[in-house]
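re: ur question from yesterday

yeah so i grabbed the chain u mentioned. its 558 aa long if i counted rite. heres the sequnce exactly as i have it in my notes:
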Amino acid sequence: MRSALLLVCAGWLLSGMDFVAAQPAEPANAPNLIQNGGFEQQGAGWEGCGNVQLVDAQQAGAEFVYAGRYAAVMGIDADGSDCPQLPDLTIPRQILTQPLTIPSNAPAVTVSFWFRAAAGTTIDIFLARGYYQFDPNLGGVRLGTFATDQPPGWQLYRTVLQGDRLAQVRGQSLRFSIVIQERTGVGPDTVLLIDNVRVVAADERTAAAPLPPRLRGDGSRPLAVTRIEGSNRWLYRMDTDGRNLQLIYRGLLGDVRNPAWSPNGQQIAVVDNNTWPWPVPDPDPQNNLSASAVTVLNADGSGARQIYQTQSRKGSRCPYIRPPGGPPETPSLIVRVSHVQWLPDNNRVVLSQPGFGVFCEGQLAQGGRSDVLIITPPAMTPATLAEYATRPTANRNGRVLVDGFDLSSGRSNRADGIWEIDPSVQPPRETRLTTSNADREPAWHPDGRRFAVVRVTTSPSADVGDRTFAIMLYDRQNLANPRMLLFADHGRTISHLSWSPDGAYLVYTLERFDGRSDIWWLDVASGATGPITTDGKAFAAAWRPVAINRLFVPLVTR
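ran it thru and got these structure tokens back, copy pasting raw so excuse formatting
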């Protein structure tokens, strides 16, 4: 009932999907308990059924493997042939499996592999008791489940067993198994490529690396950083190694977010949360609603001025008591700014403006939307660039990338994915670049062609609430082949990507497992990463796009 893996010719796969070129293999640390994890010995050590096969890069092309010459292929012609009948009387469509033994003293167990997937089916991953026992009640653990409807690019699946799950596998002879179950439909275009399988008796999550010498602070490439100080969020400037921290702006009401340098590095724009009406509060506190300004200040913190102010609208008073036959409660409309970026002319800014309704008891009303607007000072009236979109980022050619969905309500007239907007023509020309809502928060590379996104991955699985975030790098000229730069299982979430002036590094915000956040750097070429701040107070950072002489902060900070 078991069969060795067979080589497959190239023809059946070439029209099914586009693939990324091979990338460097993962560095090996702890010994791999899997034999031939990269399938380089033509499937030695592996067993499969249901027409699991190998693809040969020398026949199909190097783009069909992650590294080396061979990769395993599932999904194609998954027919259940030679697969065993399970205790529940079902017969899996496909199994890829290998036996292994977990050391009894393993401090942790990490299971990982690289994969690329397309079209619809669902796979299950196990450390199972036997070749045909895929019920965790029979021993072993179910590691995860995910759909093969995936955004493009090779990506890493990795999960770490600790605690109760580790106790279930320590000292056990088990099987690493990837299974397509009988109950799961498999479409004619379903493809799952698998490479570089690792099972190790160690915790192999992403680890911090030493700060590169190039990032040692000299004051010429400062970061603008928002930091949490008690109940306040203030704006600071600091060097790229975290030193020379200087407070430069406290904000209108001590709630400053999302700093953005102008392209010439002379100004910083921030979201300045306040209340409406502004600047004169209403004598009745119930009429003071949450709102936002966009404030622009000089690089040294001086000259702060508001270039835009949202205008919220008061609804029914609290407590609301509906009279007999009277109208239902009218929610207040809260309008704020969530994100701001500059256009390359150093004058106009683009911003996300979400609006949502709130009943007087504090409950959200159904509905809401987010739009991307353009502000051209000194005029305070915005122009709409893209409806139902958020998180704009502009390149040196003036093209704007946005997230194409509505954060407020989930309802949108724009399909999921990353969209490119060209504001140089009227109406602005829109081009959909990616099609998955797993990719978000785009950030243009300084070359104006590539862009990074934050991706919500399938790890640890579809049935686990917390997912691992990653950073992917897209090339505008080859959108089918993004590269994973970082698998961020060293924290809870990542956000706020910002490029170094030379495009060699990114900084990002890492939400730690304790809920606090720090700023980390990422070497784009090597994938090495490490912290810039470690006190858990940094919320977002922006890298000055051009080098300057050291700036001195005025004695009086506004």
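noticed a couple things. DSSP finds two helices and 36 strands in the chain. also Residues 9-27, 406-410, 552-556 have pLDDT under 50 and may be disordered.
anyway ttyl
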